[in-house]
Input
Amino acid sequence: MKQLSQAASQPVPTYRLIPSRFPPVELYEPVCQPSDWDGVKRVEGMTNPRLREMATGLGLLYPDDRGRVSQNWLVAPFTYPDPEASPFSDGSYGYSLVADTIDGALLEAVRRREAFLSRTEQGPTRLEMRMLKTPLQADLLDEYDAIQLEDWSETHSRVRALRDAGSYGFWLPKRENLGRLAVVLRPTAFGTAVQAEHYAFIWNGKAIEVIYDFSKGETLDPNELRVLAGARAA
Output
């Protein structure tokens, strides 16, 4: 097994999408007057896990990472763990799932948004998303063969052991045509994130049927990404 924690010889560009507004607006603009923003922000500082982590150093980050990452985009996945178990966490710690291709990141975002919207029985709507491009500058375990997605309890114990040992994370096996996904366990694995393209996901009440790329003025059929993910190399 490789060292669990070391710098990568060459940073790898990675991609992840997050919900957005295009054009962006002040967070509190829809719910209160500007004169109230300072007070609302103070209340948020007392209740927001990410802000508490960054202000006090007390929270869910790996101890050596505290105070070393200033970008909210990078810290958020680790300070807002999903309380519902996922393949790589029992809900007590967070991680960041990133792709090494744009299409891979789009497909993963579509899957996650569809799962959420289906469970909330959301009617037809449009979701605005933005791509984050972030260099992965830590060396991850390569296609970590001890991860068994069929048995979540076993996977959770193995991932937690990696996290406790200080590992930056691991790559999942390559998907032909869409590259690889990385499970990143520490925000210090990343360099500075920058915003890339903005998209609109068109949800028809049952599935995301169209992806609209604001920068290109073009649409993409998510089914084409699903076909690419399932295709084998020639």
